[in-house]
Design brief:
The complex is a heterodimer of chains A (about 550) and B (about 150). Chain A is an alpha+beta fold and about 550 residues long. Helix content of chain A is about 70%, strand content about 5%. Chain A starts with a helix and ends in an 11-residue tail after the last helix. In chain B, strands 1, 2, 3, 4 and 5 form a 5-stranded mixed β-sheet that branches. In chain B, about 45% of the residues are buried. The chains are: A alpha+beta (about 550), B alpha/beta (about 150). The interface of A and B includes residues 496, 497, 500, 504 and 510 of A.
């Protein structure tokens, strides 16, 4: 036990250092997403490369764990799962719930499109290029088709979060579609396992069992969403009585862990439960505060998740199927790009948006390996086809991050006519000030006023300095535009309140400017500060007489 | 915020006697003092006039919202006065003010008074509601405009 813990601690140390170095190197020097560096770090230090080298007194630091679908220890896999829960919980918190709900219908079309096209292309190419596979109903074709379907939401969520794109129409569509993808993949896997068993051993397919799996997965998802959305505001309202944002964040994450576990119990991935919890809490005024706290802790765990994902890449398994593997991976790419991109065009996105959604759905992760591992364990696929799955995961994980970053550059991916139709009823109040100091004074005073009334204020990323002021469902955005313009945006129903708050602040500003007029001229103040600095005898004299206000410096 | 928790018949006057800003403020303040809501009437008057010096609270369409932060009250207090003939309150549109909504609030909280005024403004933003107030013959008529 103590040996295992010692190894785990050493592994975590190596992973953290390697991911931080390579993550920084990839983002700063290569201008690539950090996650790519973390994946590569995992590949390098993992069980198939450097981790296999025996160390004195320990043996290989990352030994391949035989008989498991993942090549790392249960302990390490557990820590990495915790990382994925942190990641998806925060992604949920960063998602704009109304936008998510508005786009969930479109995401359903995108998710189904991606699964169907990817499955058919994956199974089809196996039939076409593999001499021993003659039909799409062959277990090998079915498993490889399924390998193509599952999207790894983690990589995309990380990149969307880093680039502040989670709540864009494309961002929410990708996340909702990826969640749906997971549900469909679980159902599809049950169907594939059922058919494969019949194909290999005879008998009939247990459709009732498959139906139950589907019902459980969909039912859990729907139930958690409805209950979560209804209860989250009441939960945070009650929790505010403890007057500690830290406790609210910790209890919220505890709920995310509970729901993640229950999600696994229902046959879904744990990250789905974590995402739902974050999503439900995203509508509350403390969402940003919870995210700020859990994100800080997540910084230690999330890289472990990506490193472990990188560790799953067995370069040796790919050698014998290199050609087929690359071709298969290309078709897997096309499956998602076309399968998710084309339906996006039909539900209101333009070509730009369709490409973003296709790229966002590209990454494959641990679900790919779990599916392939199941196929390998059941004898439906051989080790070489397992290698193909690994290669698909590797190439998709490496190609998706830069592609996703590149596609998200530029304008809106949503058709203009539709975007305008969905504009909420908001008003913008703008005031011009002579300089930044003045506008910043008003901004700070107004923020203090709102804070005093129990509002939560958080800074927003953007071209202009912006802040979100929030209390329950009341959301106001405050910005300084071009250094001197003060802008407030609010729902029309809150306009009066915002105008009056701003008027009060301006009255304070007026008092401040009036008081400035009564003070001694700053020029004179400056002169008094400098007056005796360059003459020792005058300085001593002024000190002994106590006159003047020249600054005193401590001499040691 | 419930307006009925702030307003009551003793805090409404339908025919204000004052003819200047100072007189109107004094008269409204007397309503609050008589109701026992002000700890120090002189201080409240002083703070109110200081606030008026900073920025006149005569708005437009005959509405004025004299208000101030003061140590003379512990909680938000408010009263309403009507002067159908109008008084010069240095309003933004230059029109005489006829409807006066006065609030006094403690220094540490700005929200309740802002919330109160926001709710009042929602009611009296229509010409019909303002006309009902100006033509009100009784305190009850004034309060009924606010659904009280």
């Amino acid at each position: 036990m103590s040996h295992q813990m010692m190894v785990l601690v050493l592994q975590l140390g190596v992973i953290l250092i390697a991911t931080k170095f390579l993550g920084t190197f990839f983002s700063r020097k290569l201008k690539q997403p950090k996650v790519l560096g973390e994946l590569v770090a995992g590949m390098l230090v993992g069980p198939y490369v450097l981790g296999a080298i025996p160390l004195p007194g320990i043996g290989p630091l990352f030994p391949v764990i035989a008989g498991s679908s993942v090549p790392v220890s249960v302990q390490l896999y557990g820590i990495s799962s915790l990382g994925s829960i942190f990641l998806l919980f925060n992604s949920g918190l960063e998602t704009d719930l109304p936008t998510f709900l508005r786009f969930s219908g479109k995401a359903t079309v995108v998710g189904f499109g991606g699964v169907i096209v990817s499955f058919l292309l994956g199974a089809g190419i196996t039939v076409l290029l593999h001499p021993e596979v003659h039909s799409i109903m062959d277990p090998e074709a079915l498993f490889l088709g399924t390998v193509c379907t599952a999207t790894s939401i983690g990589i995309t969520a990380r990149i969307l979060s880093e680039n502040k794109k989670i709540s864009t129409p494309e961002g929410v569509t990708i996340l909702a579609a990826a969640v749906l993808d997971d549900v469909i993949s679980i159902v599809l896997l049950s169907v594939v396992v059922g058919i494969s068993t019949v194909e290999m051993k005879g008998g009939s397919i247990a459709w009732s069992g498959i139906g139950l799996v589907a019902l459980k997965a969909v039912g859990f998802w729907a139930l958690c969403m409805v209950v979560g959305i209804l209860l989250a505001p009441k939960f945070t309202k009650g929790m505010k009585r403890v007057h500690s944002l830290g406790i609210i964040a910790e209890v919220s994450f505890g709920i995310a862990l509970l729901l993640a576990g229950l999600s696994e119990l229902a046959g879904l991935a744990m990250i789905i439960g974590a995402y739902i919890t974050g999503l439900a809490l995203s509508q509350t005024d403390v969402a940003h505060m919870i995210s700020e706290r859990t994100k800080a802790v997540g910084e230690y765990f999330v890289p472990v998740f990506f490193a472990v994902m990188g560790m799953m890449v067995d370069f040796g398994a790919m050698k014998s199927v290199l050609g087929f593997g690359i071709l298969f991976a290309v078709f897997a790419f096309i499956g998602k790009l076309v399968g998710c991109g084309a339906p996006s065009l039909l539900v209101g996105f333009n070509l730009h948006g369709a490409l973003r959604i296709g790229a966002g759905m590209l990454p494959r992760g641990e679900v790919t390996l779990i599916v392939a591992g199941l196929g390998l364990a059941s004898g439906a696929i051989g080790p070489e086809m397992f290698g193909v799955a690994v290669m698909t995961m590797l190439l998709a994980s490496l190609a998706a991050p830069p592609l996703l970053v590149a596609t998200f550059k530029g304008g809106s991916g949503y058709k203009k006519s539709l975007a305008a139709k969905e504009e909420p009823d908001i008003v913008t109040i703008e005031l011009d000030f002579p300089n930044y100091t003045a506008v910043d004074f008003v901004r700070r005073s107004l923020a203090d006023g709102f804070r005093g009334e129990g509002y939560f204020i958080s800074s927003l990323e953007g071209v202009n300095p912006s802040w979100q002021i929030r209390e329950d469902e009341k959301v106001i955005t405050m910005s300084i535009v071009d250094g001197t313009k003060f802008s407030l945006t609010a729902k029309r129903q809150d306009e009066q309140f915002v105008r009056l708050m701003l008027t009060e602040t301006l009255a304070e500003f007026q008092q401040f400017t009036d008081s400035i007029k009564t003070m001694e001229s700053p020029d004179m103040m400056g002169a008094r500060l400098l007056i005796n600095m360059f003459s020792d005898e005058d300085q001593q004299e002024s000190r002994s007489s106590g006159a003047g206000s020249s600054p005193r410096t401590k001499k040691r | 915020m419930k307006l009925k928790n702030i307003l009551s018949p003793t805090l409404v006057k339908v025919h204000l006697a004052g003819n200047t800003k100072q007189e109107i403020i004094k008269e409204l303040l007397d309503l609050l003092v008589a109701d026992g809501k002000v700890l120090d009437a002189d201080l409240a008057f002083h703070d109110m006039m200081e606030r008026e010096k900073t920025m006149s609270t005569g708005i437009q369409h005959g509405v004025a919202i004299p208000h101030a932060k003061t140590k003379a009250v512990k909680d938000l207090v408010a009263c309403i006065g009507i002067k159908p003939e109008g008084v010069d309150f240095q309003s933004l549109d230059g029109e005489p003010s006829k409807i006066f909504i006065m609030t006094l609030s403690p220094y540490d909280r700005v929200g309740p008074h802002v919330q109160f005024l926001a709710e009042i403004s929602m009611v009296i933003k229509t010409p019909h509601a303002r006309a009902r107030l100006i033509n009100a013959k009784s305190v009850e008529e004034v309060l009924s405009v606010f659904g009280l």
